[in-house]
Amino acid sequence: MAQAVHPASGSAIAVPSPAAIRARAIGVRWGWRAFLSFVYLVLFGPLLILVLFSVNDSNILAFPLEGITFHWYADAFADRLLREALLNSVLVAAIVAPACLVLGTLCAFGLTRFRFRGRGAVGGLVGAPLILPWLIIGIAALMFYVRFNVDLSLRTVVATQIICTFPLVTAIVSAQLFRFQRVQEEAAIDLGCSRLQVLRHIILPHIAPALAASAIFAFTWSFNNYEISAFTIGFQQTFPIWVYSSVRNPDHTAVVNAISTVISAVQILAIWAALRLLRGRSGDEAATGIIAGTEAVAASART
Amino acid sequence: MTMNGSTSQAPTSAEVASMPSPDARAGEIVVEGVTKRFSEVTAVDDVSITIPGGEFFSMLGPSGCGKTTTLRMIAGFETPDVGRIVLQGTDVTAVPPAKRNVNMVFQAYGLFPHMSVSENIAFGPKIKRLGREETRQRVSEVIATVRLEGFEDRRPGQLSGGQQQRVALARALVNRPAALLLDEPLGALDLKLRKEMQLELKDLQQRTGTTFVYVTHDQEEAMTMSDRIAVMHDGVVEQLASPRELYQRPASAFVAGFIGTSNLIELRVDRREGGLIAMDLGEGQRILAVDPGLGGTDPITITVRPEWIKLASGDVDGRASHVGGTVVDAVYLGSVTQLIVLLHTGERLTVHRLNDEVGAEEPRPGAHVTLHWAAEHSYVVGSSVDRTDPRTTGEPTEETAARTGR
Amino acid sequence: MAAATGTIERAAPRARGSGRGALGILFAPVTLLVVLFLAPMVIMGSMSLLRFPPNTASGYTLEHYTDVLTNPLNWKIAWTTIWIGTTAMVIMLAIALPLAYYMVFRAGSWELFLLLSLVLADELAPVVKIYAWQVILGRNGIVNWLIPGPPKSWLLFSPFAVIVTLAATYITYTTIPIYAAMKAIDPSMFESAIDLGAGWWVQSRRILIPLAAPGIFIAMILVYIPMLTDFVTADIVGGTGSYMMGQRVRDLILGSGDWGAGSALNLIMLVLSVAFSLLAYRLARLNRIQT
């Protein structure tokens, strides 16, 4: 930090030369760039590796690469077990997401718009699945099902996933409801709206982006989930479970790469769309706040 | 477009239903003995107000005085614990806000961000199912009234504060309410815009003839626009009168202090003669006031407006107050100079001296001056009001009656 | 939340039925939570107290707890887990703090893009990401390919691999709470600090970190506990030297079927997680911030 000569103290402090200041500024700037590059490498490196090897004409995960080929993609779609696993994942997610949307929104309304005595406790209960490790929840669920002679199957996966995910929807929708100006509601009532009409014309349009984004987040989370599924599933497989079991099998690895690339591409597009939805409605500032706020509150998208 | 019972189209059934006596009571609001409590706080304490149709009526007071709560009770967002709200002759105390024929302009506007300007304005008629043609016509009429032509398709986020303000107004007016309730609507605007909007609102009210009930804490604003003002304090109406009345004959020390600048003086009753009460200060100095005729020896509170106090040079009239003091502050405000004069009794008087003489000598801080003012300008606070009933319903003044034809 | 609830007082019609209205709306979610979340926890607790779970007739005992707590293997595993997790946590904070700082104060118009990148990167299936690290760190992987000399086998199937992979996977959730906390800092504080002569280190130590502290605590709640209970990462990129508590519990339950020990360990971890979360949350609140 350049410091000036202090006339009061009488003693001069060394002032770096302009060249030194410039050099330092340049050094700082490149330092940041290097750091950011490192971060991006860490964030997206794994995905790039997958993409790279998915077209590698060899089943050995080694550098250097051999030729380019797309036959792994063909193999992936021909693999019956993989197809079943994908289907199962989609099925589960397709049930989990809407259920979470409904339950989560109900909770968001219940917690933000009413005051009642047990509110803190209910809020804590709703937030708990987000904080507690999925390992513990998964095992507890497993024991619960066994204890009551419930067969483990996709149904049990759905049930437990819903419990773990709808708090996320609650968090996202609550954040939107919280920012909602009550004065709009009063204005609507003043203009003659019934309670239901206020909901339909004013509130739902306001939270629509949050709802859409929540649906996409919930779907993706359910699809990607491993830990809960591993404990509560029967003899079927979901996609992450399939990946997990294939990882140790050297013959399968390239196929894993291929399908993972496809799935990741789809997910990235979906999430990007979700975030655009959140942005478009309320403008950048609000969107940043919402994203930061909800992601901070929700510890989700874990394995 | 006038509203005084002569609408350009036949009123819809909804409108007829809400106007039992179209001529006598149109736009009339009566607040009858209303009290409202929030937990331990009494926000509104036995308030009674009658607002005739077509009046620009303001409720003025500091925060927490109960003015907004009263307004919300008229609108229906709060329910009185005691008392009634009567709109156009009908008791609406139990009627929910959606069904009352009044509309509110909120302090924060409450515009719907996902709708355009015309959709916002059309919202009320749409909910009331007025039909597409009727709605379209009303919307374009009211957009012209508030001068927002060309903005129909913009979103609220794209408008300036003043424009948003007008959309909020239009959205309320399009419903042709019996009365318009405004909750400090100009608070978010800058000074110049605020003054412009005050005049526009006043003009709008006179053109449409709709009853306006306006809430503000800015006494200048209330004085500019209102036919009558209710000055409220701690949930009680201290005085309800026209601006002139409030300024010249304040009913209480609070009103005297709240409206304009005042000099409140505790007058000892030293002697009475010639219809005057006098407080002697020695060395020929005295403060005089017209004797209200109540008798007694307790000190009375008087207020003197700063513009009535003159700087004396030479002899003083026998019927004038006469005090000496030292100038402690002199502020040049353009058209007037404001002097703060410290009397030897310890009180400070604010004096407004008109700067209408070129080259006139201006007193400096430290200068000794002699002040005088006519005894009639010492207004005994509260003396014009029936002391047994400080909360007055205040019948409309002749001015208001003449203008609105009621 | 306070603002929203404050205005609730104003709406006369609603205030009365607030209890009943809330009950109606919240009935379904809360019931489901109780049945599918609380009840399983209770069941798990009861399993840990049965002599031969899941046989409910076998009588109650505390022996599982004593076994688990006196087994030196468990302590060793706990120790491994803690040092792996803590090392990963420290590395992540070392990355997240500068990253969050950059995003808030230096990135300008790139801020949103960085935020989106973080969120996007996290949406990829974690299993897939972890597996990719296997590729990166392997004997024939990219790291070994880039580094001259013989391939280093300790890169993979080792504590090193687990630490690196954990750190890489949880960056998003570490950075975002810290980012949110830093956004609330008034930049003029740094300006006055500079004006008073503080260099970047002093600014960080005295201003940035204390004010971002609540975000750091929240980040730890979101990340530290999941890392300590992780088993997937350890399975895929870890080896014998990195056997973690999550794997231990999983093996006890799904492997050897020792539900007694498994559930006892699980419950202990549950209690510790809750205690840790409460503590960190209290610390975050004490440092006064809204997240």
Topology at a glance:
The complex is a heterotrimer of chains A (303), B (406) and C (291).
Chain A: H1 18-54, H2 71-78, H3 80-112, H4 119-131, H5 134-147, H6 154-178, H7 182-190, H8 195-224, H9 227-232, H10 239-247, H11 253-297
Helix pairs in contact in A: 1-11, 2-11, 3-6, 3-8, 3-10, 4-6, 6-8, 6-11, 7-8, 8-11
Chain B: H1 13-17, E1 29-38, E2 41-51, E3 56-60, H2 67-75, E4 82-87, E5 90-91, E6 102-105, H3 117-127, H4 132-145, H5 161-173, E7 179-183, H6 191-208, E8 211-216, H7 219-225, E9 228-233, E10 236-241, H8 243-248, H9 253-258, E11 263-267, E12 271-273, E13 276-282, E14 285-290, E15 300-304, E16 310-311, E17 320-332, E18 336-343, E19 348-354, E20 368-374, E21 379-380, H10 398-404
Parallel strand pairs in B: 3-8, 3-9, 6-7, 7-8
Antiparallel strand pairs in B: 1-2, 1-4, 4-5, 9-10, 11-15, 12-13, 13-14, 15-21, 16-20, 17-18, 17-20, 18-19
Chain C: H1 2-8, H2 12-16, H3 18-49, H4 63-70, H5 72-106, H6 111-122, H7 126-137, H8 142-146, H9 159-169, H10 171-183, H11 188-195, H12 200-228, H13 232-237, H14 245-255, H15 259-286
Helix pairs in contact in C: 3-15, 4-15, 5-6, 5-9, 5-10, 5-12, 6-10, 7-9, 10-12, 11-12, 12-15, 14-15
Question: How would you characterize this protein structure?
Answer:
- The complex is a heterotrimer of chains A (303), B (406) and C (291).
- Chain A is 76% helix and 0% strand.
- Chain A has 2 domains: 16-45; 79-297, MetI-like fold (Orthogonal Bundle), CATH 1.10.3720.10.
- By secondary structure, chain A is mainly alpha-helical.
- Chain A has helices spanning 18-54, 71-78, 80-112, 119-131, 134-147, 154-178, 182-190, 195-224, 227-232, 239-247, 253-297.
- Chain A contains 11 helices and no strands.
- Chain B is an alpha+beta fold.
- Chain B has 2 domains: 13-254 and 387-404, P-loop containing nucleotide triphosphate hydrolases (Rossmann fold, 3-Layer(aba) Sandwich), CATH 3.40.50; 261-380, RNA polymerase II/Efflux pump adaptor protein, barrel-sandwich hybrid domain (OB fold (Dihydrolipoamide Acetyltransferase, E2P), Beta Barrel), CATH 2.40.50.
- Chain B has 10 helices and 21 strands.
- The longest helix of chain B has 18 residues, at 191-208.
- Chain B is elongated.
- In chain B, 41% of the residues are buried.
- Residues 1-8 and 385-400 of chain B have low confidence and may be disordered.
- Chain C is mainly alpha-helical and 291 residues long.
- Chain C has 2 domains: 17-61, no CATH class; 65-286, Orthogonal Bundle (MetI-like fold).
- Chain C contains 15 helices and no strands.
- The radius of gyration of chain C is 24 Å and the shape is globular.
- At the A-C interface, helix 1, helix 3, helix 4, helix 5 and helix 6 of A face helix 1, helix 3, helix 5, helix 6 and helix 7 of C.
